[in-house]
Amino acid sequence: MDINIKSIKINKDKIDEISLRNCLYWVDENITWELLEGDLKWEVLLSGSVDLVEKETKLFNININDNILRFNLSRGSHSTREQIIKNALLKLAKND
Amino acid sequence: MINYTHLPFNFKGLQDDKYLVSNLAGQHQHLSKLDFDNLTHAKYNQIEQKSLNSLESKHFIAPKNEAKMRESIIASKLALRIQNSLKRPTLFMVVPTLRCDHDCHYCQVSRVTENKKGYDLEEKHIAGILDHIEFLADKHIKIEFQGGEPLLNFNFIRNFFDTAKIKLKGKHIEFVIATALGPINNEMLEWIELNNIHLSVSFDGPEHIHSNNRPSKKFNSYENTVDNIRLIKKHFKGIDVSLLSTITKQSLQHPKQIVDSYLELGTKNLFIRPLSPYGFATDTWGTLGYSANEFMNFYKELIAYIQELPQDIIEHSALFHLNRIFSQATSYVDLKSPAGIVFGAMCFDYNGNIFGSDESRMLWTSTKADELIIGHISDEPKNTYTKPNLIALLRDTFVEVNPGCNDCVYSQFCGADPVHHLATQGDLIGHKARSFFCQIETQMFDFIFNEYYLNNQMRKMFDGWLSNGS
Q1: Domain end among B319, B351, B383
Q2: CA-CA distance, B124 to B140, in Å (whole number)?
Q3: B383-394: pLDDT as tens digits
Q4: B442 contacts in chain A (CB < 8 Å)
Q5: Which residues in chain A come in under a pLDDT of 70?
Q6: B299 with B313, same domain?
Q7: Measured between CA atoms, how close is B180 to chain A, in angstroms?
Q8: Which of B3, B70, B132, B152 is the most exposed place for a label (fewest CB within 10 A)?
Q9: ipTM of the complex model
Q10: Domain check: are B80 and B94 in the same one?
Q11: How far is CA B302 from the centre of its chain?
Q12: Structure-derived torsion over alpha carbons of residues B456, B330, B405, B68, reported in degrees to the nearest 10
């Protein structure tokens, strides 16, 4: 089987590590991935069969764009989603 | 001009360059790409006015000076949604026997042969089961007899019914027998009709599919099922019969014939469900199973065919999803967060074990994983439902914070299904990228949202189901 390795580089000011790992969560289990941290850029290496790497790179790029957007939105949010969930659970606990 | 800010939301791109956004309040909004871009780039005042009003009323955006107050409203709405999921169970399943007169290849409960001894629920346990139901139940409940083939222990059903009527007096109880109609006879049918008991019948469609999926050594299973349904519809008109189809690989090529086979029996209510990975189905997945894509291609064709037909047909799996989206209903156990274990359903097995769902029973039957057992019928009810293993089963089933679900646009409408993930991946949360449940549900919601917002005919049909079928 021919193995292909694809390198994807993303500026570190565009996305944080957690958001990047959220993208890697969805990569096909038959792909091996590596996340490298440089001074200015993240580098993701996807390796596996040629066809699968092609397919997964496309999906990964779509996913990255969505997660860059999520990252930006979370920075701009007045409060985090997690804080709202915590408040909801506190309200429930009080009612109980 | 109002100075807006956005509140937390999840999003996903859908067909035709449209976007869906949803939030923790359980609200959603379908947007054009332009409006979505304006929303995500904080150009709120360039959003089309109708969408802008809707986004504000649904708490996706708020005037900056109101943001804190709106976050509090979202938290209250989320608290209410969680509270609604934590209500007392309304469905109680009782397994009078594991014996069966069918040899279904995908049997999810690992049934035993018809004459095997030691697989019947003894009548001495009836009082104990009813103690548990009385302890847990609200005013309106459903008691469903499951199997094996429950009619093979018909005396148990009759005695249980008579005792329940006395013991649970004051509660509104709907009784259901889930059956393949093998052992049914006129005496049973007269009693069933007299006592207003519903029948839920397994029916997989045309003969070549039904008899292949659900063979019996005793009879032609298709002829037996169809003849009995016709008999009931002709002579026992007071009996409400609903049909349920499990889809195997062989069914995938025949969506139209499956719909036609329901119509031939005079039934306009379909319930289509994918194969579940429990019991014998784990061994036969290679020959009977399929991918989520294959199932959804079949399902889309089936729904498109229903929409073309002149009859008003309802497919109840889609209706459960529509109800979850538009009225935040929590009656469908698969789509609950936290999961529906105990809070949705309870199951009393033939051997006296108590499970928090039918799926837990199915998984235990094939694996004997005792952590799935919540208790035993002979246990004191008040000491049964606070055990650590039940808490462990439920603890990680709040999908809004589960990995893979937390940023999913459908997490507000979806469920956790920990038992599915335990069965397929060995842990209760599961890796969603490899989850058949996640793949099916994601594609199901994609389909429903795309059709509802982009296909007027389909929307009309779905609205009709929501008005009349729920």
Answers
A1: B383
A2: 25
A3: 898 888 888 888
A4: none
A5: 1, 76-79, 96
A6: yes
A7: 40
A8: B3
A9: 0.90
A10: no
A11: 19
A12: 90
The predicted pLDDT at position A79 comes to 64
The structure tokens 């036969």 sit at: B284
- Structure confidence by residue, pLDDT tens digits, B440-465: 999 999 999 999 999 999 999 999 99
Best interface-test mutation with A: which of B72, B73, B408, B424 has the largest number of A CBs within 10 A?
B72
Please give the model's pTM, rounded to 2 decimal places.
0.94
Side-chain-facing half-sphere of B221: CA atoms under 13 Å: 23
B24–A72 C-beta distance less than 8 A: no
B211 with B323, same domain: the answer is: yes
Same domain? For B216 and B290 the reply is yes
Question: Domain end: B84, B112, B133, which one?
Answer: B84
Domain count, chain B: 2
> Quick check: is B98 in a domain?
yes
Cβ contacts (< 8 Å) between A79 and chain B: which residues? 7-8, 67-68, 71
Q: Which amino acid is at A76?
A: G
Chain A, chain B: beta-carbon pairs less than 8 Å apart: 78
Q: Which residues of B166-190 are buried (b: 16+ CB within 10 A; e: fewer)?
A: eebeebebebbbbbbbbbbeeebbe
Cβ-based neighbour number of residue B408 at 10 Å: 22
> What tokens were used for B290?
């399929």
Q: What's the distance, Cα to Cα, between the start and end of chain A in Å?
A: 59
> Cα separation of B198 and B25, whole Å?
36
| Whether A85 and B24 lie within 8 Å, measured CB to CB | yes
Tell me how far apart the alpha carbons of residues B267 and A9 are, in angstroms, rounded to a whole number.
Answer: 57
For residue B222, what are the domain limits? Answer: 88-383
Q: Tokens in use for A13?
A: 């000011």
CATH code assigned at B142 = 3.20.20.70
CATH of the domain at A33: 3.30.70
pLDDT per residue over A28-53, tens digit each? Answer: 999 999 999 999 999 999 999 999 99
Total number of domains constituting chain A? 1
Cα-Cα-Cα-Cα torsion B203, B415, B137, B317, nearest 10 degrees, comes to -30
In chain B, which residues have their Cβ closer than 8 Å to the Cβ of A69?
Answer: 11, 40
Nearest-CA neighbor of B6 among B77, B48, B58, B75? B58
CB atoms A92 and B403 under 8 Å: no
